[in-house]
Each structure stands twice: as structure tokens, then as C-alpha cells.
Amino acid sequence: MSDTPISPLHLGQSSALPASPEEAVLDYVPNPRKDTLYLVRFAAPEFTSLCPVTGQPDFAHLVIDYAPRDTIVESKSLKLFLGSFRNHNGFHEDVTVGIGQRLFDEMQPHWLRIGGYWYPRGGIPIDVFWQSGPVPGGLWVPDQGVPGYRGRG
């Protein structure tokens, strides 16, 4: 990545929700602490997508952890990207892993993991986890803090 300043597409602008994840543009900005190994966490406790079989909404609590290298993802563009899944049909596994892989492929951090804690579909909660590889030595990675599904109590 060059040291050329990056002008984010969404930051400080009025931006419509993309119609699909494929149309969503993620903005990346230079990491202000690129010589430091540290962790960034995004939590999306009200994430939604659509069941590919029934078209009914699916709900999840997503937690994305990453150790940036040269860039960081701009949070408004990430919010718009995640929001674009509201009209996207996908199995929990495909949605969760696809989000993690796209972020990893585009941003190229040291390390990235995503936990998708999905609410029950057909009476069964499905949790999906993906990470790019081993945790880098010396990186503090706290528990994602999302308890397993317990229903009403």
C-alpha cells in the first residue's frame, strides 16, 4: 500500500444502503499505528440476512476481530456492507465465512476472525466461526463475550 492519502467513499457523506453485498464498497484507511500489533473488534448484535430456502429473516450477533497491518476498515463502510445483507439470501455458514474472507482478502491484516452467533432457525441455533490462521504471537485476543444460546432462560 502506498502512502498516498485515501479519500473514503462514505465517511462524512450521505450513503445509501447497498442493494447487495456484492455492490457494497468497503473503505480502508491507513493504519495510524501500523508498527504496533493490536486488536480491533467490531460487534454487530443485530445483524440480519435472509434464509435462502424460506426467504424469512435470520438474525445473528456478529463479532469481528482483526489485527491490522497497513490499513483499517472504515466503520461506516463496514456498517453499510453488513446492512446490505438484509436482502441477501444465504446460509449462516456462507454469510459468516464470506464476510470474514472478504475483509481478510481486501484489507490483508495480520490476522482476522469472525464469530457468527445465529439465533435459532428451525429450533436450532447455529454458531459459525472462521479465522485466517493462528493468532500472531503477543496479540491479546479476549473472548468474544457472546454466551451460547439459552432461549428464555
UniProtKB/TrEMBL annotation:
Entry EC no(s): 1.7.1.13
Reaction(s) catalysed (UniProt annotation): 7-aminomethyl-7-carbaguanine + 2 NADP(+) = 7-cyano-7-carbaguanine + 2 NADPH + 3 H(+)
Active site: 51 (thioimide intermediate), 58 (proton donor)
One function term, GO molecular function aspect: preQ1 synthase activity
Pfam families per the UniProt record, alphabetical: QueF
Coiled coil start-end: none
Subcellular location(s) of the protein: Cytoplasm
Similarity comment: Belongs to the GTP cyclohydrolase I family. QueF type 1 subfamily.
Function: Catalyzes the NADPH-dependent reduction of 7-cyano-7-deazaguanine (preQ0) to 7-aminomethyl-7-deazaguanine (preQ1).
Protein name per Swiss-Prot or TrEMBL: NADPH-dependent 7-cyano-7-deazaguanine reductase
